[in-house]
Structures are given as C-alpha cells and as structure tokens.
Amino acid sequence: MSSRxxxxxxxxxxxxxxxxxxxxxxxxxxxxxxxxxTPAAEAFTAERVVDATGKYVIPGGVDGxxxxxxxxxxxxxxxxxxxxxRAAAWGGTTTIVDFAIQSVGGTLREGLDAWHAKAEGNCAxxxxxxxxxSDVNQETLKEMDLLVEEGVTSFKQFMAYPGVxxxxxxxxxxxxxxxxxxxxxxMMHAENGIAIDVLVEQALAxxxxxxxxxxxxxxxxxxxxxxxxAIRLAQVAGAxxxxxxxxxxxxxxxxxxxRDEGLNVFGETxxxxxxxxxxxxxxxxxxxxxxxxxxxxxxxxHQATLWQGLRTNDLQVVSTDHCPFCFVxxxxxxxxxxxxxxxxxxxxxNRMDLLHQAVVDGRISRRRWIEIACAxxxxxxxxxxxxxxxxxxxxxxxxxxxPHAEQVMSAETHHMNVDYSAYEGRRxxxxxxxxxxxxxxxxxxxEYTGHAGHGVFTPRSTCQYLN
Length: 467
Hints:
The protein is α/β, with parallel strands linked by helices. The chain has helices at residues 39-42, 81-90, 108-119, 138-149, 169-182, 193-205, 212-217, 220-237, 249-260, 271-275, 278-281, 302-312, 351-360, 366-380; strands spanning 4-13, 18-26, 29-35, 48-51, 56-59, 61-66, 71-72, 75-76, 93-101, 126-132, 154-158, 185-189, 241-243, 265-269, 317-318, 398-408, 427-437, 440-443. The strands form 3 sheets. Strands 1, 2, 3, 4, 5, 16, 17 and 18 form an 8-stranded mixed beta sheet that branches. Strands 6-9-10-11-12-13-14-15 form an 8-stranded parallel beta sheet. A hairpin with a 2-residue loop joins strand 2 (18-26) and strand 3 (29-35). Helix 8 (220-237) packs parallel to helix 9.
C-alpha cells in the first residue's frame, strides 16, 4: 500500500528557488512538484491534502551540531534523544547530527555503540553521528577508516578542555592526515585551552568567580589563534576543516583569509552568537550562568561580523550546539566558581525561528535562510539531496511555516527539557505549523503527532561541499 500526500498552494522555498508549487509525496519521498493551479498540479491525487495557502513550504532543518544526553562537567545534558528530537521537530528541524564520544583509553567503536544505544528507538526525527576523537593512536586512526565506510564521516577534535577532550597539535595533524586519505571531515573546537586554563586559574585567584569571567578568560584572540593553527595544520595535512561555533570577529577573519587562499575551510556559527552577548553573561544574581557556553558569548560588536560572514559565505552553516543544562541543580554547580558551570545552551527548538526573524529584519534572504539551516549542512555532512531540499527523490522532510504568526519565546511554552530559555521574552515573527518527517506528520497544525522511534539513523557520505 503506497501512501500519498499533496501539499497545495504554498510558496516552496529552497536554497536556490522560490516557486508557488504543489508538492506530491509518495512513500515518504517527494515524487513531484508542479506550479500551483496548473493542470499538472491539479492532476496530483492523494489520500491526504495539506493546504499551505499563504504559508511557506520549506525543507526540514538540518542541525549539524547537537549534544543529547552528553556527560559533561560532572552532570549530563538535560535533553534525552527522545525529548531533544521532539523539541527539534517543534522547531522545524527534521534531522540532527549528534556527537558520539570516544573516552580516553577507549575505542571509537565503543563510543559509537554507546551513542547508538542511547538514540535507537527513541528519536522523533532522523539522526546521524559525528565522532569525537579524544585519544589519537594507531588503532584510532584505523578505526576512522571503518567509521567512514559505515556513514560516520566526520570527526571532532578539541584544542580546548585539557584533560578531557584535548588533542595536541601532533594528534590533530595525524587525524587530519588520516581524514585526507579516507575522505573524512575534521571538525575543530578552536580555542587555546592550555592558555585559557592559565587565565582561569589567575582569575579565580583574584576572586573573579562570577559567570561573566567565563567570557573574559576565554579570549577572542585565543579563539583566533587556535583557528589559525587549525587551518595551517589542515593545510599541511591536505585535509578539509570545519570550525565549529565560531563566535569572534578575529576568528572569522582567519577563516575568510584561508578561503581567499582557496583552502577547503568552513565555519559554523550558532544563534547564541548572533542574538546574545556578554551582556547576558553579566546578568546579576548568577543569572549569567544560563549563558555559559564555549566558545563564549562575545561583546555585541562581534555580531555584525558574524552576520556579514553569513552573507558573504565566509560562514556557511548555522547549527545550535544544543547542550542544555538546567539552571537549578546543574548550572548552579558553578556558584562561586565560574569554571564549574556546565558549558552549554538550549536552542535546538529556536534556530529556524530566530533565523526567520533575521529574514524579517532584512539580515539575510529567504533562500539564504534555507541554505544555512538546511541545504548546506546537508551537503557539508553528506546527506544532500536526501535531506536539505524539496526535490523529486528527496526525503519528504517538509515544514509548513507560517511567516506571519507571532510568538514569544519562553521556557513556559518550549518543549526542550530544560528549565529556562536563553531567549526568554523575545518576540519573533514566523512559526512552524506542520512538520513531516519522511512524509509522516510529526507536528500537525501545532500538535505533536510523532512518536519515539520514528526517527532512524542516517548513514552519511563524505562532505559534498569541497572546492
């Protein structure tokens, strides 16, 4: 029995086109598009018809950077794969790529198997994995080849967090050389963690313990220095490089310079760096702890450079780095010592709406919205055109989006399993109305109709965004 759905009358927006078209979905995939009102469109027949008149019909969002159930700083991220993917769906995201973690002394396989066990049967939407490489050795390097073959094609390394995830330059170079051979993409947390630890120790010794000092010790120059170093190591290895959560104008400058040289270097930023700032970190009564993440929030003047980077394609992707910790009982672990505040913000539900607000405000175009939130992450991580677009043969991951509905972001109404919103009280225009994942309604006219276990693991090919 085949199942068919027609979405009628909406404005279909992809990274390359805007067209008033009807969309025919058959057996979980897009079967055809035809201009609305034409005989071809009127010939579409289906058991289920969705009226999208006056709405946008967009590809489901692809969030290439989430941390569900991640252990960190003596606690664990508050969203499970079940709650986190449900919240993602509410926000118009239909695919996440989460991070499996290799423990020091453990194998990549053990880490990946542990994350498969967390996610399998629990996700409302489709998911993939990147692999955090914490322990580079000869066995790890061989395992990288095997993971690429089974669809885990990106590997994250850390220049920060000595004693936890940190890799030195030699380990980074070896992993990059391996990626150059097997087609993998190295993702880099670019901050000079060795130097930052010195500044943390000195700040605490001076009695500077409040959350705002988290931003002051993790200096923009140390993000830029690490970004530069990662770029040159990748150049030596002949490997592509994807720098995660870029927050500082100085780091954007390093990426722009490398791209002008023709290097395969890419940058991601996140909504928190586009919409929040050190003003939030400085909120009184320990409220600033809600905004502790790494890389940290920067002074407001960095935002203009990040927006410019998104317009000029020096930054290609907006992901969330969704890593939620509740204020009560988790963020509070750092009262009296900012270095003990778990690093991370909730945001998987807010990304598509915040970026649509940027469209409303004239910062980016509608097509660029889809490009940075859907199409490019799908291409960057080897899922295009299965994900990230609306075209015949693509998975029917489709969002009916009301561009006129207004909402107020709040912990009272969000679906993330966390007790605060980083965007509490923020008014935005535009809201998800209906979400299909592989043709199945997960959100139906603002009601959750999905279920845990619908989402499946999505093996990925290698990066499709190279020069």
